[in-house]
């Protein structure tokens, strides 16, 4: 394993729009900055159309991610496209961050690790993953041209996934456990229009209990009857029931999380550990959007900048010892 003898002012873990927005500000502030990113772009690149990011009336999620990353890389930012696998506190004021191949020292950390799609947790889901069970309409919707598909969930994200799927599928069913889906007004109007056209149908107060199929999804078992049967025939099911924060690294060093697993942060994006900040979907902010995550990231970086400039740092990290300990664990 290679290890640098540079001490960074900040290491940003995560290469989505939140991470690179923070990196851009860190670069502007003259901070020695490293971004660790296994894959660049984050979950926004799975979004077909973004219409609620100020300054851009309409663009794809990939375009937004590319523009923010390009802006960040105008500054003296180091980008290492490797997954952060471990974080160690090596003194009261410094941390060591490991990838599979390298280790790095830093005075502060910003967790911009985002979240992953929540699973239904029903029989057949794992077995048929990517064989009719999906979580990204943009990625997998084109496979189901002129087919019947189901979307499980009732959020605005579920509504947007359903709308995108109508571009391919013959019909889209939204299966939701609640009384009424909770889409933003503009998307609700679009869903209602598709309902009028016969492209979308909503099945309320219903849960999926099992997913069946021999090599591919063939039908679902519902917890109540739909048109006289609990057997619901479909070619695919897109699960859109929320996200789970990627909090493992943060929890490993004692960062506090709430009952949902989200990192608890204050208005300065600070966690309970000095010099450690968090922003975006991994944090406990109630309203999660690309714009709110970007704002949190910028606040977190400024807080880190103040922290670095208001404290004296001694980082007596022993690379060889840390690397050996990390390998053992």
Helix and strand run: EEHEHEEEEEEEHEHEHEEEEEEHEHH
Overall body shape: elongated
Structure summary, number of beta strands? 19
CATH homologous superfamily grouping of the largest domain = FAD/NAD(P)-binding domain
* Overall domain count: 2
Q: What integer value in Å does the Rg equal?
A: 22 Å
CATH class of the largest domain: Alpha Beta
SS strand fraction: 15-25%
State the major sheet: 5 strands, parallel
What do the pLDDT scores average to?
93
Task: Please tally the helical runs, counting DSSP H or I stretches of 4 or more residues.
Answer: 8
Q: Return residue spans where pLDDT drops below 50 for at least 5 consecutive residues.
A: 320-329
Under the CATH scheme, the architecture of the largest domain is 3-Layer(bba) Sandwich
Indicate the CATH topology of the largest domain: FAD/NAD(P)-binding domain
Distance between the termini: 15 Å
Helix content: 25-40%
Structural class: alpha/beta
Major β-sheet strand ordering: 4-3-2-8-19
Helix-strand blueprint:
Elements: E1 2-8, E2 10-13, H1 17-28, E3 33-36, H2 61-72, E4 77-80, E5 86-89, E6 95-98, E7 102-106, E8 109-111, E9 115-117, E10 133-134, H3 137-140, E11 148-152, H4 156-165, E12 171-175, H5 185-196, E13 200-203, E14 208-212, E15 219-226, E16 229-233, E17 236-239, E18 243-245, H6 248-252, E19 276-278, H7 290-310, H8 319-328
Parallel strand pairs: 1-7, 2-3, 2-8, 3-4, 8-19, 10-17, 11-12, 11-17, 12-13
Antiparallel strand pairs: 5-6, 6-7, 9-18, 14-15, 15-16
């Amino acid at each position: 394993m290679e290890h640098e003898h540079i001490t960074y002012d900040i290491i940003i873990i995560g290469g989505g729009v939140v991470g690179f927005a923070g990196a851009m500000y860190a670069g502007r502030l003259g901070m020695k900055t490293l971004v660790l990113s296994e894959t660049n772009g984050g979950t926004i690149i799975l979004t077909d159309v973004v219409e609620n990011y100020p300054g851009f009336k309409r663009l794809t999620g990939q375009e937004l991610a590319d523009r923010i990353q390009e802006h960040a890389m105008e500054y003296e930012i180091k980008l290492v496209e490797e997954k952060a696998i471990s974080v160690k506190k090596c003194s009261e004021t410094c941390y060591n961050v490991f990838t599979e191949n390298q280790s790095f020292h830093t005075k502060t950390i910003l967790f911009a690790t985002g979240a992953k799609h929540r699973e239904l947790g029903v029989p057949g889901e794992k077995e048929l993953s990517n064989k009719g069970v999906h979580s990204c309409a943009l990625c997998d919707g084109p496979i189901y041209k002129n087919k019947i598909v189901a979307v499980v969930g009732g959020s605005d994200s579920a509504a947007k996934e359903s709308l995108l799927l109508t571009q391919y599928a013959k019909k889209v069913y939204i299966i939701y456990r609640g009384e009424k889906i909770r889409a933003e007004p503009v998307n609700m109007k679009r869903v209602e229009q598709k309902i009028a056209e016969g492209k979308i149908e909503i099945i309320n107060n219903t849960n999926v209990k099992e997913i069946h199929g021999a090599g591919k999804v063939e039908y679902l078992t519902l917890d109540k009857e739909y048109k006289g049967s609990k057997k619901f025939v479909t070619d695919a099911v897109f699960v859109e029931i929320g996200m789970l924060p990627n909090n493992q690294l943060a929890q490993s060093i004692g960062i506090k999380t709430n009952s949902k697993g989200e990192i608890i942060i204050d208005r300065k994006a600070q966690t309970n550990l000095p010099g450690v900040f968090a922003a975006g979907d991994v944090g406990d902010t109630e309203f999660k959007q690309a714009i709110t995550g970007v704002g949190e990231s910028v606040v977190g970086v400024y807080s880190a900048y103040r922290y670095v400039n208001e404290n004296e740092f001694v980082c007596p990290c022993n690379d060889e010892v840390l690397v050996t300990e990390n390998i053992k664990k």
